[in-house]
Task: inverse folding
């Protein structure tokens, strides 16, 4: 089979690619070709795999060429992140809505109804004006995004549902929780600090936490996120049992609990590297995010959250030693 | 003030225009100019009013010119209807999503945060796969459109909410119920027969009903629909008290009740002109529509549904005699 990962050179995309190549099959079929489309070149180990083809450039411009490729499956992960979409409305509309639509149009033109897993986000949820957001957002909580990023993700969820109903693609939308701990540098996502406050101290570097310790948030480790994307790809329409958008499992933790876990895994000196310095812009965005999420439908697919934040930190440390994809 | 009605030559648009011109004020301001944008020319009585300016052509092409116009308010009614969007996916995306986005972009460029009432639809609601639709859809029922038309309306609702949050426009989305009785000829809306089974018999013409008599549906008369659009335009953000999309009031009636009302107003011979001839395409679309709607938030704005379907028929007969706008 021929697969496409958009955002295939990103952290989640590259890790998903490694996992798929190591499995060598998906949904019972052998993976013959894996196309990684991204603005950047993928890591060298991926490029070295004979099954991988890397396409570098703007997704919006690449899409026209995808009609002829007739992919059997697509993981659509490419996205502008929440912080940049909030600063530049047009960038977000182009990168998230227009690119997704161009991709879906190309897949429709191919005419083979490919399976598509779209990376949506827990950011589709937000408080209704005049109403508090439920503490835990469920699969069927009424979305009310309070960011342009969340709005664009939600619009794409509905577009994918309609194009699936029409038989143009076989789509599903996985609402990613905040993936932590991400390696590398901070990015423009408003949620970036959920990784930074663990990653930087573990590297001996001071980290600033822009929100209060009491802030609660649904998170999931990279490994469980990849597992979920693959399981949701492989699920039959019957297994999905309902609408095509579903929450990924989440560990609902407070910043306080994250830092306690950091101390328990790495000691008090490491934890002391985290300083609180409120950033009103970030705190304002995060204040409109859910404090936690449930995922009954993902659970029915056998997916579960990490059992503790300590486990998530240990997974990150192991990853850094090169023992994970 | 300077107002724009898109779809301003259509049935609702022209009637809204007449009502606004007769009032001569909106939200406490004098109406100086009323621009009617439509693919077709507006009725002669509207063109004759010195305050009216008609612009004929494609909305998508007209939008660029709207940035310089600096409208104080917009009623965005132009839309491809449900039946044609279901037959031609690209037409619906262009007419409903792209045109709305181009309009909002132009209004944003104007820089004066104009008030915008968007005509959304009860078609945003549909049954979740594996779950029956609630018999009565409320303002906060989770939308799951089962038509491309409903999907496009819902995507626009979210776009307007986000652009309002960003301060680009001051938007609100009125979810129209099926407007009946519409005058004139049948159109490509799957709901067209909800007018046809009354209008045609009253004109002495046989009418075919494509669904069972037991089908229930939320309807509202033209006069109440216009009242609601105006009231929602005039509502402050505080009065809206919540999200920007809200259901219009509805009279929830079965086809049987509609025909009984026709008999009671116009006699058994008129009613006998309605024949049942099932149309699977129409019946399939209608089967995924709500059987009824509630409108708590519209009610809080003082809006109410027609008290009986007999009243709706009598209003139509009076309109035909020229006694209403």
Result:
């Amino acid at each position: 089979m021929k697969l496409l990962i958009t955002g295939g050179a990103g952290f989640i995309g590259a890790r998903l690619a490694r996992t798929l190549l190591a499995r060598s099959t998906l949904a019972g079929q052998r993976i013959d070709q894996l196309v990684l489309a991204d603005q950047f070149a993928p890591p060298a180990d991926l490029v070295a795999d004979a099954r991988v083809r890397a396409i570098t450039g703007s997704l919006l411009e690449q899409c026209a060429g995808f009609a002829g490729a007739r992919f059997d499956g697509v993981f659509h992960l490419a996205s502008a992140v929440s912080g940049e979409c909030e600063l530049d409305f047009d960038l977000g509309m182009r990168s998230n809505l227009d690119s997704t639509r161009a991709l879906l149009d190309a897949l429709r033109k191919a005419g083979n109804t490919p399976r598509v897993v779209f990376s949506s986000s827990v950011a589709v949820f937000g408080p209704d004006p005049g109403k508090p957001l439920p503490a835990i957002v469920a699969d069927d909580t009424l979305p009310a995004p309070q960011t342009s990023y969340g709005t664009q993700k939600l619009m794409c969820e509905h577009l994918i549902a309609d194009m699936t109903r029409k038989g143009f693609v076989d789509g599903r939308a996985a609402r990613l929780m905040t993936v932590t701990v991400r390696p590398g540098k901070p990015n423009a996502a408003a949620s970036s600090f959920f990784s930074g406050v663990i990653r930087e101290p573990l590297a001996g570097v001071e980290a600033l936490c822009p929100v209060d310790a009491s802030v609660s948030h649904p998170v999931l480790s990279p490994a469980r996120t990849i597992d979920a994307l693959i399981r949701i790809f492989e699920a039959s329409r019957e297994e999905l049992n309902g609408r095509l958008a579903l929450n990924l499992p989440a560990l609902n933790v407070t910043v306080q609990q994250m830092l306690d876990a950091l101390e328990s895994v790495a000691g008090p000196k490491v934890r002391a590297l985290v300083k609180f310095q409120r950033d009103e812009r970030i705190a304002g965005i995060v204040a409109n995010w859910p404090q936690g999420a449930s995922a009954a439908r993902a659970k029915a697919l056998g997916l579960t959250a990490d059992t503790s934040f300590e486990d998530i930190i240990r997974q990150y440390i192991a990853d850094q030693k090169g023992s994970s994809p």
User: Anything to note?
Assistant: The longest strand of chain A covers residues 115-121. Residues 2-320 of chain A form a domain with the Rossmann fold fold (CATH 3.40.50.720). The radius of gyration of chain A is 19 Å.
